[in-house]
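Exercise 7. Predict the joint structure of the components listed below.
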Amino acid sequence: MITPVENADLTALNSFGFASRAQYLFDVASDAELLEAVAYADERQLPFLVIGGGSNLVLDEYIPGVVVRQISGGYRVLEEDEGSVLLEVAAGQNWHQLVEQVVDAGWSGLENMALIPGTVGAAPVQNIGAYGVELKDRFVSLTAYDREKQVFVEFSASQCGFGYRNSVFKSVAPGRYIITRVRLRLNKQFVQKTGYGVLSQYLNGQEVTARSVFDAIVAIRQSKLPDPRDLGNAGSFFENPVVPVEQCEQLRAAHPDLVAYPERDGFMKLAAGWLIDHAGWKGYRTGRVGVYEKQALVLVNYGQGSARELMDLASKIQASVMEKYGVALVPEPRCYPQ
Ligand code: EPU
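Solution:
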């Protein structure tokens, strides 16, 4: 029988470092413990929130109800053939440590996603991605607990509905499923994916390995993203907006240096960092929160800031980008309470 910590301090459990308390916090290490935490909330009709690494969260001062943290980590090899391995990874596993472990094991496929904060269980929710690779490219299936039907279920890749920073777990049924295990297929041979501009420049034509790509990504990310241990943040605060090609061309006519990439057919993805930067926000500071000086897509907590202050700043940025470019910015992190 596990018991929750009451009035638990979540300050160290969210990468913004906002002072926040949970009514009840459960650290669960197994399926059985997870079910106990679910039953605790259901019997008392309490709100229920699962947090991973807390790196994509904006937490208010008080989170009523039950907060669950999965603390089980590690992976096992389910299948192995000549060219690939199939891994099953526990939800509580730290993502970056997994990436480093698989690179050390000689497997390729995750190295472009080095240094993304958070846990493996959170990774499918927003289909994490960086430098030309997304989780969905390596994903095989996952196991989740369905709170509605009260059973563990399996999801194939297509059932997850992955899109850019999106999945059914985020958009269709938020809160319904608790992801407990994720299965990924990796290559035994190094498969190079280094076309992303800044990455190919960094590697500069030299011969590369999974390890050197991993090292390059770590260096690139460290050069432009603040370490949450030094400066609270949640990585990119806004998604890169996807707009019809015609709208992008109109914007480009007025702003020739606009940064945009082809997305799916007929749509372009605009660099939100460029829009925010060119609307004059880079390095802006108000009270105890602000816009990171090296990357305008990252909002930061200088210490003692609050979710309220941050969301006020986010609204101002959204209004300003809408006014200047007619483009709506959508926050990437989940905000609690909503
Ligand atoms: N830019 C500016 N000013 C800025 C920031 C960026 O002009 O202040 C321009 C850059 O010059 C560049 C373009 O915007 O041409 C894109 O910037 P960058 O390559 O740094 O990537 P991003 O679009 O800002 C996305 C992801 C990151 C991911 C990188 C690399 C989103 C919302 N963000 O950032 O993911 O690491 O690409 O693949 O898709 C995250 O989601 O938390 C995250 C860090």
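Discussion. The longest strand covers residues 177-187.
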